[in-house]
Amino acid sequence: MTTFANITALLDRQQADYRVVEHEAIGQTDAISALRGNALSQAAKAMVLEVAMPDGGGSRFLLAIVPGDCKINFKSAARAIGGKKSSFAAPEMAQSLTQCVMGAVPPFSFDDRLALRVDARLRDVGTLWFNAGALEKSIALNADDYRRIIGDASYADIATPMTVSA
């Protein structure tokens, strides 16, 4: 089953309020948000991180979801799952864990090796927008339904607003 099919099956099972939007294949948050007509703050930007665990505990992988108008805070993201520090996972590992090309990763983990943490700013955006496992498909999902599906424990302060210089 494709990632897109996994997402829509999950949303259907959970009776979530969502819609699918098809568009040209764009993997950049600002460009796709402009095309879809959503605010950057409503866009769920997904990143796969490798998190170093304390006391020689090896590493874990984290699917970090931040608003499109923010950047990841690597230290806060690591702490959200009990780690010390984090960095981007190797692209091959990220693709293996998500079964998606980068830019198409949705805000859901379908792999037990991939923990999920979502920046708390995305809790109350009304409608959450994200690429749905394919660069040419997006989903607009009711943010309350997303919160109900992933649970409050998945939220953490893991992002920093981007500053715009004049």
TrEMBL record:
TM annotation in the entry: none
Domain of life where this protein originates: Bacteria
InterPro entries: YbaK/aa-tRNA-synt-asso_dom_sf (IPR036754), YbaK/aa-tRNA-synth-assoc-dom (IPR007214)
MF terms (GO), sorted A to Z: aminoacyl-tRNA deacylase activity
Pfam family, one: tRNA_edit
Ranges for domain YbaK/aminoacyl-tRNA synthetase-associated: 23-148
Signal sequence residues: none
Classification via PANTHER family: CYTOPLASMIC PROTEIN, MULTIFUNCTIONAL SER_THR-TRNA DEACYLASE PROXP-Y
Protein name as catalogued: YbaK/aminoacyl-tRNA synthetase-associated domain-containing protein
